[in-house]
Amino acid sequence: MMIIDTTDGNNLRLLRRRKGLTQEEVADRLHIPQSAYAQIEIGITRPWGVNLQRLCIIFQVSPNFNVLKR
């Protein structure tokens, strides 16, 4: 059974919408397919490493902002 945590995705979705970006635009900046970014937003997968750093840059938040609140 897969557990899906939508809290992280909701945080990312909120940041993305505040920036006026589409999922495809964020995915392009991460150099991943839009479908892979969509999976992050719905909580199936989590960003890590370089993609997590890039998300902080895209959304202009510090890594301490805790894009993925746990």
Key traits:
single chain; mainly alpha; 434 Repressor (Amino-terminal Domain); disordered N terminus; 70 residues
What's the layout of helices and strands?
Blueprint: H1 6-18, H2 23-30, H3 34-41, H4 49-58
Helix pairs in contact: 2-3
CATH class: Mainly Alpha
Number of helices: 4
In total, the number of domains comes to: 1
Instruction: Kindly report the name of the CATH homologous superfamily.
Output: lambda repressor-like DNA-binding domains
Order of helices and strands: HHHH
Could you tell me how far the N terminus lies from the C terminus, measured between alpha carbons in angstroms?
A: 21 Å
What does the average pLDDT come to? 83
Give a quick account of the main beta sheet: strands, pairing sense, barrel closure. Answer: none
Secondary structure: helix percent: 55-70%
What structural category arises from helix and sheet content?
A: mainly alpha
By DSSP, the count of extended strands is 0
CATH fold label:
434 Repressor (Amino-terminal Domain)
Radius of gyration: 11 Å
Annotated CATH architecture: Orthogonal Bundle
List unreliable stretches of 5+ residues.
Answer: 1-5
Quote the beta fraction. Answer: under 5%
How does the overall form come out from the CA principal axes?
Answer: globular
